[in-house]
Amino acid sequence: MSFVRTVLGDVRPEDLGVCDAHDHLFFASPQLPGQELRSVSAARAELAAFRAQGGSAVVQWTPYGLGRRAADLPPLSRETGVHLVAATGLHQSVHYDDGTLAGLRDRLADVFVHELTEGIGTSGIRAGLIKIAGGFHALDAHARWTMTAAAEAHHATGAPIAVHHELGTGVLDVLDLLCDELAVPAHRVILGHLNRNPDSVVHRQAAESGAYLAFDGPSRANHATDWRMPDAVRALADAGFGDRLLLGGDTTTAAARSVAGGPGMPYLLRRVRPRLEVALGEELVHRILTENPGHAFGVDWR
């Protein structure tokens, strides 16, 4: 039987409820100085605002070494009534110093497996997914290393693998590596940021592989992708891939939180959901927010 591994224990996929399939409560990177997501009180307020819009689950894609604050997640989940899923994994190399990467060089897959089965650090909180990242239109040596380790950890545990795609690019290269070379079943792969590169041909090819496609996070004005997203999602649904789609918010900076005046987690349900309901209908959007995340993150854990 499949279960979604939350910070309070495993839950049935059908009990996940309305899910933000890609977001961050805590995140700290040298690439975003001064915009760290570190405040527990702000995270609590953000979850409460998401809950007030009808949300009941958030999958946090913050991986190893980027300020996950795993020990703070269970009390936040209890206090707000929102299921939380934590991640293991590793982001692009620019987010880490050389010493951190050198220390993981020969044990990365073991770290992933430990955090999925035993717990993150000394917290005892088990991760529910592996988050990794590709590059801009290509996969460098770091991406290949992390994806190889993620595949090994998947084969040991069954855990899903969620992939950050830089501006939505490199999707087919990721599938070639993970699924063709490393034998990860496509239905265990979640392709992030497909909204950032609205290429309908690539979207269709990715969906045909059996992977999940995540449309996650409002774009900046110069990306000009938000208005294309409903049509892209509708095209995939019309082609029979409505069960492959996920939605998320991807809040990565303090200024982007709703409690700081940004869109934040509530934006997914306050603005994105009704806009998609116009294009797809309420029933399909509800299934994308509830059933699909349960299937994508639900695992028969080994």
UniProtKB/TrEMBL annotation:
Pfam families: PTE (PF02126). Keywords: Hydrolase, Metal-binding. InterPro entries: Metal_Hydrolase (IPR032466), Phosphotriesterase (IPR001559). The modification N6-carboxylysine is found at K131. Belongs to the metallo-dependent hydrolases superfamily. Phosphotriesterase family. This is Phosphotriesterase.
